Amino acid sequence: MVVLSKGELEQIALPAVQRTAPPLAVVPEIDLDKAARDGANGRAAAARAVAAACEKHGFFKVTGHGVPAAILARMDAAAAAFFALQQQEKDAATAFGYSSKRIGCNGDLGWVEYLLLGVTPSGAAPLPESSDASTCSFRDLLNEYIAAVRRMTCTVLKLMAEGLGLDEKDAFSRLVLDKESDSMLRVNHYPPRPELKQLGGHGRLTGFGEHTDPQIISVLRSNDTSGLEISLRDGSWVSVPADRNSFFVNVGDALQVLTNGRFRSVPHRVMVNSARPRVSVIFFAGPPPRERLAPLPELVGEGGRRCYREFTWREYKTSAYRTKLSENRLCYFETAATS
Ligand SMILES: O=C(O)CCC(=O)C(=O)O
Ligand SMILES: [Fe+2]
């Protein structure tokens, strides 16, 4: 079990000036079911709305997503059961991607425990040899979830390409459907915050510190507990109202590069401010490691400036994972303003 020292606990308590929650966000909504029912016009309108949301915020909400409610209910139950295990049992699941409080290897701490799993073309990465039956059934469920969410993710990515007016409508979705796509699934559990007195008076804890997601897009669903906050272009923070019936989409760094900066990789964080636990499940849609990423020529335009140099996804991921969460990880890949 990871026990935080008093000093470490203080690091995840926000400074006193940030004690109050920011205002509620007005999150753009895209109804995929309606877009499909309304024919070509409905689809074109949804594509335009998706592109507008990605340009303005890098964030929107998806309703009518088509992921069966039964899968979502089973995921909720399975995640709750896993995180309710004794600490010793959870610690034994490190081969299954379990970790607590420490995010990455660069000293970032958060009031969170999580499972982080690689995703292969057929679902979640193979189980460790010693897995028991309950782990296997959890894995089967994860695979069903991943298949359904990946389908929806690709619908969203096609709408993005259409909204950008790209000739190749699968310019983004093909990267996620590639058999070597480096996608991940993360299940986060933010335990209710401890008593104020244990925190020396700080009412809000950092669950997951400010960052952008490195992949193409992240597709998130949570329970009814809020806590997710996004940063707007003016640098202010807004709090995203929880909605267990919808998915939330974040534009990631790779998509910001592919769109030459037109779509915005949205800075976000999770604050633990509730007496109830927050559970979120995030599908990170990533390209194959060898994929060369660069601004799409159609989006640079003739004589236009390429804001990023070409690099492979492996190169970017390695570089991003060497930095602290809150660092601007893309700056090493930007071109000089004169080029
Ligand atoms: O748990 C959440 O709601 C978001 C967490 C997050 O941003 C991440 O895992 O990258
Ligand atoms: Fe994130």
TrEMBL record:
Cofactor: L-ascorbate
Keywords attached to this entry: Iron, Metal-binding, Oxidoreductase
SUPFAM superfamilies linked to this entry: Clavaminate synthase-like (SSF51197)
Gene responsible for this protein: gb24596
Family annotation (PROSITE patterns): FE2OG_OXY (PS51471)
Record flagged with keyword Mitochondrion: no
A Pfam family the protein falls into: 2OG-FeII_Oxy
Domain of life the protein comes from: Eukaryota
Biological source species: Eleusine coracana subsp. coracana
Family as reported in the entry's similarity comment: Belongs to the iron/ascorbate-dependent oxidoreductase family.
Domain Fe2OG dioxygenase: 180-287
GO molecular function: metal ion binding; oxidoreductase activity
Protein name according to UniProt: Fe2OG dioxygenase domain-containing protein
InterPro entries on file: DIOX_N (IPR026992), IPNS-like_FE2OG_OXY (IPR044861), IPNS-like_sf (IPR027443), Iron_ascorbate_oxido_reductase (IPR050231), Oxoglu/Fe-dep_dioxygenase_dom (IPR005123)
